[in-house]
Amino acid sequence: MSAQAPCPETPECSPSGMHDLAQRLFPICRSITGDGVRQTIRILQEYLPMLRMVEVPTGTQCFDWQVPEEWNISEAQLIAPNGRVIADFAVNNLHVVSYSEPVDLELSLEELQPHLHSEPNLPEAIPYITAYYKRNWGFCITHQVRQNLPQGQYRAIIRSTLKKGHLTYGELIIPGSTDREVLLSTYICHPSLANNEISGPVVTTFLARYLQALPDRRCTYRIIFIPETIGAIVYLSQHLEHLKSHVIAGFVLSCVGDDRAYSYLESRLGNTLADKVAQHVLKHLQPDYVRYSYLKRGSDERQFCWPGVDLPVCSVMRTRYGSYPEYHTSLDDLTVVTESGLQGALHVLRHCMDCLEQTLTYTTTVLCEPQLMRRQLYPTIGRKGIAAGSRVLVDIMAYSDGQHDLIDIANILGRPAWELFQAFETLHAHQLLSLPEAPPPTLAAA
Amino acid sequence: MSAQAPCPETPECSPSGMHDLAQRLFPICRSITGDGVRQTIRILQEYLPMLRMVEVPTGTQCFDWQVPEEWNISEAQLIAPNGRVIADFAVNNLHVVSYSEPVDLELSLEELQPHLHSEPNLPEAIPYITAYYKRNWGFCITHQVRQNLPQGQYRAIIRSTLKKGHLTYGELIIPGSTDREVLLSTYICHPSLANNEISGPVVTTFLARYLQALPDRRCTYRIIFIPETIGAIVYLSQHLEHLKSHVIAGFVLSCVGDDRAYSYLESRLGNTLADKVAQHVLKHLQPDYVRYSYLKRGSDERQFCWPGVDLPVCSVMRTRYGSYPEYHTSLDDLTVVTESGLQGALHVLRHCMDCLEQTLTYTTTVLCEPQLMRRQLYPTIGRKGIAAGSRVLVDIMAYSDGQHDLIDIANILGRPAWELFQAFETLHAHQLLSLPEAPPPTLAAA
Amino acid sequence: MSAQAPCPETPECSPSGMHDLAQRLFPICRSITGDGVRQTIRILQEYLPMLRMVEVPTGTQCFDWQVPEEWNISEAQLIAPNGRVIADFAVNNLHVVSYSEPVDLELSLEELQPHLHSEPNLPEAIPYITAYYKRNWGFCITHQVRQNLPQGQYRAIIRSTLKKGHLTYGELIIPGSTDREVLLSTYICHPSLANNEISGPVVTTFLARYLQALPDRRCTYRIIFIPETIGAIVYLSQHLEHLKSHVIAGFVLSCVGDDRAYSYLESRLGNTLADKVAQHVLKHLQPDYVRYSYLKRGSDERQFCWPGVDLPVCSVMRTRYGSYPEYHTSLDDLTVVTESGLQGALHVLRHCMDCLEQTLTYTTTVLCEPQLMRRQLYPTIGRKGIAAGSRVLVDIMAYSDGQHDLIDIANILGRPAWELFQAFETLHAHQLLSLPEAPPPTLAAA
């Protein structure tokens, strides 16, 4: 990667068009399995042709879990005694509890009530409800509608199927010159929810395009579009050893589309390279960002950071799940997610990627300060102390002791890492810095 | 121990009656040796039949010290020229300097003065003075009396003996299912002093009864009633290797009877399990407690924490020795010590014992979050994030990485440990947590 | 060294006379090589007869550098068209750019300008300018003069030589009973500059005399008077392995003569014994001292702390280079440096030396508190807690666990180390403390 242009705004990685993609993905009815997931991945493949669709059969054991039956749904209606359609899947796919079994029943309001879900605090919102692991069915409606339901016989029709099939996920490997891997994970299992679903795959897709467009890459990028929880568990159960030995940092991309805040949710112990990079980037780009402890976790860092899994994964978000009122309701729609909201998240994450590309631990090659004048790196006339323009070079070398990586040194110097990329490159080019630690095999070849 | 009822208020361990015991013990003239110590232990044996009385002969070498001659006293009087009895051992045993040699002398006021002790700042108090290791004698009187002593010939009579005998201490071992030991140490060497003496053995006795009444115990409790300093040195010299290899935590019980404050005096480096437990319990039960550095030490933590001894011992107190005006004078009487003062200390110390019983370092047995629904530990309908009722279970597992013990996890979660005992038990019962570290032999058998 | 008198004010080390020495050294035209350095060392030899002058030939390779040609200068004048002498080396040696090549030229004002240096912000000051490593020449004048220079032909005469010769430095080894070395480094390469040159060798000289006068020494002192930067690099390149295996602490002495502030510039990582001692001494003697990060470095700690060199070196200064307006101009003269300014620095540095002499890591020899009474270290009558006069003895032993050195213990006790020297000596004399770590060979013989 060129240090001079860490964030090229080339057509390939232009953020314009993110909201367009969000609009295409929003209407699809996704769940943790089923054709909605496949349809989503197929659209993403238009942007990322190398994105591979992977199918894992129902019943596959994954640690303490099994891949559940595949769920698909074609239509669903809840019809009031007066014939009015109270809830119609065709109007909003949130109306049906995800993984509802097929039903075609007549029942009284009293019998219906246990199958109804609404949100009293947001009376105009349809809540998002799931019932993945125990057969059940239900309808989600606004609390306003629910409070005015007349007595009488209702008809509940859900045309769904629950049968052996597959769990589907997408995986894209963008190779670099080393096998140091960066893991990016986002989820594609929610129906029409915007910030807490669509923003994730959209920003991940454009971030992947940015990474693909880099002229060269030190890191290899492993980018997965998975159903939340069960998808992460499936993926980890099938790749754990590889991930543990290769991943140097990872990020869960979720809630990256609104324009209200920036936030960071630390890894379990808060001490990974991912945390260090996220904190560094946000401190310089968005100093008012909100920091959440791992106790506030809610997405796949739950699995990635689990004891024994212990991948170095944190989250960089706009407004965190659970911290905005529309969360998990029909109000989390494409008015919450904005082009500038998506762009802001992409901007921060691109800087995180840039930092991961550049963050190595160097060692000075010369004992004592080198003679910089004969390398044209120092003025020939001496005045007061270390010449200002050369100071950053000398400071970088002074802390390049094999113990401090590039981010550490940027933190010591109180400067954004990206302002130092060029200086590190210069010193490396003059052979004043070397990479002392035995590099991974492919790095040596690079 | 049942996690459901960490602090049962059963008759066996009811704190009522603590002040009654204090009243029985208060009048006895104790010193670092002698019959007062034996008499005290015999009364405690009524409450703790398994308490063993141990005699160590005069002259026994214990590290840098030797067990001194045994001191006993039957009567003592200081009589003024006019025949008035200025100080009478029968009235208050503080009137005689502890370890005074026998005398029967006539002497002038001027000759007497070096043998008189009073406290100008507390003119109505008789000070507590000792002269254990160099033959001497003396009387302690109020400063008021001292200032009005007439000239003339005084008679000083002390009927005491100083001869080969024994140092006496009490020891009670309450066995648990493991040989992880908790050391409780209190002293029985002061004459009629209440907070800075009697409160210690009284609370220790009732705490021992609480521990004996537990339906089962993981820890073994080693409870010693010793003369301060020389008793601790004797005990350590005879048990050091055992203690160093078994004691996981210990507490010195002193000044645990007044009702004015709670305090904690840290171990030498402040970093032991005893410190962690004491800090945790006090933070939740008595957040205004006073914390003292080891520089403020004054009881047997002086010996227990000595370099090379290095037992994990701290002190939990009500008002610390030296921090209340009556300390080491006749004003430290049974009005300073109250039933509620004793109860408060017992309450805190029982929670410390409960924490020590429960504090183990667990490891999750499952990679990634386990499927809690099929264990009826998670709701089958999903709404927003981790279900609230299950959150504590998941959080406990998330930090059960073999590095954080139960108290660490309670601290991370910001909750009192005892609110988590049940959850740990539940997870252990479901085999979702295990005890990864090789347990001590007897623990494996338990 | 006698603990009773850590800072004897004997004639040998009396600070009076420091300003006299400064006045002798001030007028000499020093540079990084040349006769000015030799002349300076010869004067210092009057005070330190064992000071050895060392010559290193031009062309000697030292890490990334080579010893440059030797520069000497006899006279220089810049003469205006009207015959007026604008700048005369005989009047102020700052008028000539250090290392100016010989010239004898007539040139117009326009041609002259690139060779003129002045300081617009200090219009009455002659700036100090160097051009060591690329042939050049120039004159330094006040900005006032420069602004009034008439048009016309100027004559520039510099009678200098640049040819093969030597770099000269001074070295004094003051042996102690062990080979634990303390490095003191100061520079002698600036012409007539007072605080940022002369103060360093003057205070170093008097500090060396103080050390020589000590009745005995545990440490060996290596004291070097070197040209800044190239001198340090030369010295390190020839002594690195010895220094790395022997130096326990070191100080760069620079800017130690004014009377405005005390300051401390930490070593690269701020965690060496030198840092610990400097912080301790300044905290107690000059609590308002200014602390600078290594990022503010500007003298030979640049070389001593370089990665791979990593000597434990920091700086204790009065007002730091770059932090006072006169720095590197003719205004940094002997009015900036005062006798009391020099004395204050010497006072602080002597305490640092005293601490280094005394700072060892002891271990208590006795398990549990020793019996101090029979050693006459404790009163025989006991009153409240540990007797006040003996408390410091007991506290010292309580932390003498082989992990805390004397300064650590002084910090724990909140007292200046020198107030504890006597107590450590007493305990050592009573064999209550020992030095557990295998001492260096010569220490064992001492």
From TrEMBL, chains A, B, C:
Highest rank taxon of the organism: Bacteria
SUPFAM superfamilies: Zn-dependent exopeptidases
Cross-referenced CDD domains: M28_like (cd05644)
Domain DUF4910: 19-358
Domain DUF2172: 70-161
Ranges where the UCP01524 winged helix-turn-helix domain occurs: 362-434
Protein name as annotated: DUF4910 domain-containing protein
